[in-house]
Amino acid sequence: MDSSITRRTFLQLAGISTVGVATGLAGCSQSRNTEAASSSSESSSPGSSSTDAAATDTAATDSTATTDTTATDSAASTSQTEAGKGNSLVLVFSRADENYVVGTVEVGNTMVLAQMIAEKTGADLFEIERVTAYPTGYDDCCDEALEEQRASARPELKTMPDITGYDTVYFGFPCWWGDLPMPVYTAIEALDWNGKTISPFNTHEGSGESGMFSTLASKCAGATVTDGLTMTGGTAQNNRSEAESEVDSWLASLQ
Ligand SMILES: Cc1cc2nc3c(=O)[nH]c(=O)nc-3n(C[C@H](O)[C@H](O)[C@H](O)COP(=O)(O)O)c2cc1C
User: Fold this and answer.
1) Which of 104, 108, 178, 225 is surrounded by the most beta carbons within 10 Å?
2) Within-domain flag for 29
3) Could you tell me the residue range of the domain that residue 146 belongs to?
4) Which residue lies with its CA nearest to atom 21 of ligand 1?
């Protein structure tokens, strides 16, 4: 394991520029994939498509990784009441609490988009949640997420989503260390994607979609993956009119 790949590295890289972040984070992912059993087959290619400004906050202090957390559930709701009732589902992993750029939030950045998409399409919404919530502190969460990624962990979920009966799955997630968060892998590897259309969306702070959309295409056998929507978390959280406009354009492009 390359001990130089740390949260501090992530933050220092993030202070350089959007391109610097994308390149640096992709580098993190590539290094990680060569030192541990790879958790995704195509997730290491840099894929920044962001035109938003990169975060510039580089203040970082080391902290000890922890698996003990007192985090409470996110304020976002899970409203998949009856699988198969509608024909589309918004499936999302998102984390509230303290985060990069946006500070402490009650609804995670990707969840903001997920709720917009569900409202606009009439889709059901299901939140992928790890049994043990991630730490509420950003630094601790980064450390724990990196540990999980290096271990190619497949953390247990509170409830496995049920995608039977849905034709279309709008699938949202943040970029974590240049890759999908590990609970997303837990879900995608357990589900039967045959015949589904996946429309992916993600938030990030400089890495863009970072190859995650093609990772979905390769891991979700039998599914068709459409063009995705990529947005910075800061835009989703703090510029709702811009976020809504981008969501509208994307949904229109899928028709
Ligand atoms: C554990 C962790 C790792 C992250 N890694 C990256 C990264 O590699 N590249 C990036 O651009 N942003 C990274 N971020 C920032 C998130 O992608 C961004 O804040 C996103 O909008 C969070 O979405 P959420 O609020 O839905 O969880 C990371 C954030 C966390 C908490």
Assistant:
1) 178
2) yes
3) 7-49+76-253
4) 233
C-beta 141 within 6 A of ligand 1: yes
Domain with residue 127: its CATH number is 3.40.50.360
Say how many domains are in the chain: 1
How far is the centre of ligand 1, averaged over its atoms, from the C-alpha of 131 (Å)?
20
In a domain? residue 63: no
Burial class (CB in 10 A: 0-12, 13-18, 19+), 179: buried
Amino acid 107: pLDDT = 98
Domain presence at residue 60: no
What are 28-40's pLDDT values in tens digits?
Answer: 333 333 333 333 3
Q: Give me the sign of the Cα torsion angle 67, 74, 128, 18.
A: negative
pLDDT recorded at residue 50: 34
Is the pLDDT score of 17 beyond 50?
Answer: no
Give, as one character, the DSSP assignment of residue 151.
T
Residue 6: in which H helix or E strand, if any?
Answer: none
Q: Specify if 66 maps to a domain.
A: no
Cβ 174 under 6 angstroms from ligand 1: yes
Q: Among the atoms of ligand 1, which is closest to the Cα of residue 100?
A: 19
